[in-house]
Prior knowledge:
The chain is mainly α. The chain has helices at residues 12-24, 29-60, 74-77.
Amino acid sequence: MDTQNITLSIPKEILRRVKLIAVQRGTSVSGLLTQTLEKLVEQEDGYARARRRHLHWLEQGADLGTGGQVVTQRDELHERA
């Protein structure tokens, strides 16, 4: 995978803590950020796939077991006693 350098402005205290986390995980700040951003991209891709799948399902409609035929009238369903 090709990489590209970027410049980030991060508060010093956050950067200090991120460096400690990277050391504890045996990686670099760059590696830690890459892993975190990869997870974010995967989540967004998963959300987009789920959204498309559900929109497709809504467009098709659900099978309610009626074969597309209305077997009762609205008034029958809402009869008042």
